[in-house]
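agent> step 3/5: call structure_predict on target 'Oxidoreductase, short-chain dehydrogenase/reductase family protein' (Sterolibacterium denitrificans).
agent> reason: downstream docking stage needs a structural representation; sequence fetched in step 2, passing through unchanged.
tool.input:
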Amino acid sequence: MAFKGNVVLITGAGSGMGQLAAWRLAAGGAKVAALDINEKGLAQTAEGKPGIKAYVVDVTDAEAVNRVVAQAEQDLGPFDRVINAAAIMPFGKLLEQPTEQIRRLMDINYGGLVNVSKATLPGMLKRGKGDFVSFSSMLGQMPTLFTGAYAATKFAVSCYTEVLYHENRDQGVRFVCVCPPAVKTPLLQQAVDTVWPKILDANPPIKPEEVLDALEVSLEKGEFWCLPGKGTRIGYIMRRLLPNAVWKEVHKAEGC
Ligand SMILES: NC(=O)c1ccc[n+]([C@@H]2O[C@H](COP(=O)([O-])OP(=O)(O)OC[C@H]3O[C@@H](n4cnc5c(N)ncnc54)[C@H](O)[C@@H]3O)[C@@H](O)[C@H]2O)c1
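tool.output (status=ok):
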């Protein structure tokens, strides 16, 4: 593992990849501040793990995020790594998806990252060390039908993190933007419960372990874009070079 520090803050730590990252890092000896809106999930994350301290917070609430970050820093010490994994993923045809839901998606998936970066990154930059990790998605590189509202949040996450990196590079903090394809976590159920784009059946969901392993490799190699999973890098390149060919495949898969 590329992690050499002591204290980690993780949002979305009550489920899926955030939870797994908390368990792995705590098992390696780190002190983990686990943040999530889901109290039950957080309790499961921290149960029997003295290295993990749970903080219930809604990442869309900037003041609450500032409060919790200050508290966690007081409890555990300054952060050596921050992982932004909190998100929701309802899908839908854009004109049919409730406007409130589209706004909420942006508030959580993008606004949460903004709030957490403002609360944590200045301290890391001042200390001249640390890892700042954002979870975007392949959908934050390559949109498909019925994923527009979620994909827009992940394009925002990718762009924000990329610019954040370039504005603060060479100051000792490592930045990584993780863009996984579908991953086997509870998040997928939100898509199943709304609309499941057929193109996502082209490849089975990968394991969360594979994504976290790829993240460590990216950190170690100093690669900003982390593209886990078979074919992800090719998809990333195809979208840039041949966007119309990608859309053709998407329409073919959906039969429209
Ligand atoms: N699972 C996938 O297929 C997939 C693919 C690509 C990218 N991602 C991204 O990876 C990250 C982790 O996803 P996951 O699959 O582990 O999801 P998950 O649903 O298992 O976990 C997400 C966590 O975020 C929390 N959360 C939601 N809203 C919140 C809020 N307002 N404040 C605080 N916490 C909140 C949830 O309670 C949940 O515990 C997300 O950013 C997701 O968009 C996931």
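agent> step 4/5: record observation. The radius of gyration is 18 Å.
agent> proceeding.
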